[in-house]
Every structure is written in C-alpha cells, then in structure tokens.
Amino acid sequence: MSNEVTVPLLPCASLDDMVAFYEVLGFRTTYRQRKPNPYAAMRREDLNLHFFEMAGFDPAQSYGSCLVLTSDIGELHRAFAAGMRAAYGKVLVAGTPRMTRPRPRKNYDGMSGFSVVDPGGNWIRVVQHGQAEPAPAPVGRLAKDLANAVVLADSKGDPGQAARILDSALARPGDDDDPVTRVEVLVYRAEVALVLDDPATAAAMLTRARSVPLSPDQTARAATALDTAADLTAALP
Description:
Elements: E1 9-12, H1 15-24, E2 28-33, E3 39-44, E4 47-53, E5 65-70, H2 73-88, E6 98-99, E7 103-104, E8 112-117, E9 123-128, H3 141-156, H4 159-171, H5 179-195, H6 199-210, H7 216-221, H8 223-235
Parallel strand pairs: 1-4, 5-9
Antiparallel strand pairs: 2-3, 3-4, 6-8, 7-8, 8-9
Helix pairs in contact: 3-4, 3-5, 4-5, 5-6, 5-8, 6-8
Protein name: VOC family protein
Keywords: Antibiotic resistance
C-alpha cells in the first residue's frame, strides 16, 4: 500500500479562535461544520491539521501535540513569524498562543526545532528533517545548561525548571564563558520570563544581554540571539 496520509485531530475550546490563529500562519480552511459536532480542517501546502471543539475544554490542561517534519525549518519559522507580525504587530513569545525560536534540541539528537502553542493549548512541534546536519554538541557548562533548559521549556513545557537552571548558570562566575553563549543564555532567560508572566525579569535580562561586550565577529555570531532580543523587547508591556 502507498499514499497513506495521517492527519492530527486536536481539541480546542473555540473553533473560531483556532481558525483565526492558523489563518495568521498561512493556513486556509478546507472544511468546517457546526453540527453534529464543531469541526474544522486547516491546510498549509502539505501540512494538514484538523480541530474539534469541546465544551468546557481548558487549553491550559491540554495534552494535544503533534510533530511536523520539514526540510527547511528556518523558512517555515520565518513565514509564521511574518504572519504574526502582520496580524499582531509582533511575534507571540508568551502566553497562549505563542511560538518559540528554532534551536538545536538535545533530545532531538542536536537537530533544530521550534514549537507553536496554539489557542487550544496544543503543541505543534516542528523538527528539522532531511539533509541538515545536527548542531555540534554544546561545549562548556553554560552552553550545556542552555541546552538542558531548552529541552525543559521548549519541549517538555516546564519553563519554571528551565528558569531555575538558567539562574543557577548565570550566578556562576563567567570569566571563561564565551560571550556569545552568555548573550544567548540571557536572551533565552528573558524569553522564559515572559512565558512565566514576569516582564520585570525579562527586561532585566535583556538589559544585561545588551551590556555584554562583543567583538564584530562575536556580534555576527550572536545575530540570532540579538534578533530574538528585539522581538522580546517588542513583547514587553
């Protein structure tokens, strides 16, 4: 047999909210009904997601999740981010819905991944697939702590434990740290703070990140983290 297709079917509290959000990401509605049960089918190129509405459903308690494998994770993230900026004026980095940045995932054997948490509390986990090489293993305690925090916050959904790991890492003397890694850790700690509804800590971490001295080469290496810092600054209240 061949040509089988598997489509995730995910729960939500409001079908209207789900359709509106996924349209921002470039999906279109291919089918929708209210009776006998509220149901919608959404499609973006070869990516299909279906949703059903449940009375009394709490997105904060959702276990809904699925994997999306793509050969160009950067292109898909940029498209989603552009849709968010056009609709909301910023990339949603906190609350529900939100989207994380592409980062190497230790639990994905170093392959890059990012997550979209939709209005139903479902985690759409986008993973690099195909020819891309895994990122090198992190070197140094600070880089290893960052890798562990990413797994906890971006994959497991435990930002509180990720914050504790990062705070412990940042409290250690940093004389031998790679400055770029320190910027990445500070920016990621700011992102985790926003997820935890702690804008004061997020602002403090971003100020610290901007104060790290960087050479021109280091500034180039830190470009992604610095771009993230700009998005996080825009998300501050």
